[in-house]
Write a structure and sequence with these properties.
CATH architecture: 3-Layer(aba) Sandwich
Number of helices: 10
Strand content: 25-35%
Distance between the termini: 45 Å
Number of strands: 13
CATH superfamily: Ribokinase
CATH topology: UDP-N-acetylmuramoyl-L-alanine:D-glutamate ligase
CATH class: Alpha Beta
Low-confidence stretches: none
Largest sheet: 9 strands, mixed
Order of helices and strands: EEEHEHEEEEHHEHEHHEEEHHH
Shape: globular
Oligomer: single chain
Strand order of the largest sheet: 5-4-1-8-9-10-11-12-13
Number of domains: 1
Mean pLDDT: 95
Amino acid sequence: MIQRSGILAGGNFIIDQVKIIDRWPEQDSLAHIIEHTRNNGGGPYNVLKDLSRMDVGYPLGAVALLGKDDAGEYIRDDLEKHCIDTRHVQFTEDAATSITDVMTVQEGGRRTFFHHKGSNSLLNKHHFNFSNTSYSIFYLGYLMLLDQLDAIKASRISGFAEVLKTAKESGLITIADAVSVDNELFKALCKSCMPFLDYLVLNEFEAEQITGIPLTAEETPPVVSLREAANTLLSWGETKAVYIHFPKGAYALNRENSEYLQPAVNMPAERIVGAVGAGDAFCAGLLHGIHEGMELDKQLRMACLTAASSLLAATASDGVLPLSESQGLAEAHGFVVI
C-alpha cells in the first residue's frame, strides 16, 4: 500500500500581469495604470502557491506545460522557491507561456481578464503520469480553458475526463473547477467528467451555465436553487460533493444529502486590495479541508477564510495567510448576513 499525502495540481499555469487602474474606461477612452505587477495565474498555479503560503506542511506538486521562454522559467523558479515539486513540469518550443492581463479597478477590486492561451492550449493527457505517485489528491483546472483537454471525442469522453479517469484509477482523489465562460459545450464537458470526479468546485455563474438553473439573478442565490443545481450535478456521476461559491458565501451538498451554507467574511472595503484569485484561494482552502478530512461545514469555513485573505493583495496569492493567522479575519470582521 502506498502511503499517500499531499496535493498534485495540473492544468493552467499562467503569468498574470496585474494592472491596478483608476477606473474602467469606455471604449476609445483612457484609464490610468496605477500599479503593475507580474505574478502567478491559473487555477493549479494559484492553488499550489496558496497552499504553500498557508504552510500546510504536506507535499505539493505541479503538472504543467510551459513555453521555453522567460515566463516559463519564471514559473518553474517560482514553484521551486515555494517548495513545490516541478518534476512533472514540461517545456515546449511550439508555443509561448500563457499570459493574462488582469485589469483591476482600484475602488472595489473588480477585475477583467485578457488572456493568451499559449502553451496551455497544447497540454494533453500524455503530459500526465500518475504511476507510482504518492499524492493523495489530484486537482485539475480549468475546464473550458485547455483546448486539448476540453475536446470531446466521438466516444463522448473528453480529454479532461480521460485524465481524471486515469488519476482516479491510480488511487487519487480527484477534484476540478472551471473558468467562467458562456459556451454551449460547457455542459457536455462537465457531464463527461462527472463519473471520474470526487469533488467539483464552481462559482454561481458556472453552475448556472452548466445546469441551466438560474443562480445569478439575485446577489445571493436562493438555497433552493443552489440545492437544485448541486443535485443536478451530483446526478451525473458518483461525485461525493459539489461546492458552489459566490461573492457573499458558498454552498455545499454531498451525496449523503448533507448541505451547508457558509457566509463570506465581512471584509471592510478599505482592506480589499484586489479580487484576483479569490476563487482559487477558496479552492485552496477547500482542498486543505478535504485533505485533512474535515466535515462539510469546516471545509467551507476554511475555504471562505482563505478566499478572504486573498483579497488583501492585488495579486492572486500574495495576500493568503498562514493557517495559524487566517482565523483572525473571522474574529476581526465576522461574516456577512445572507
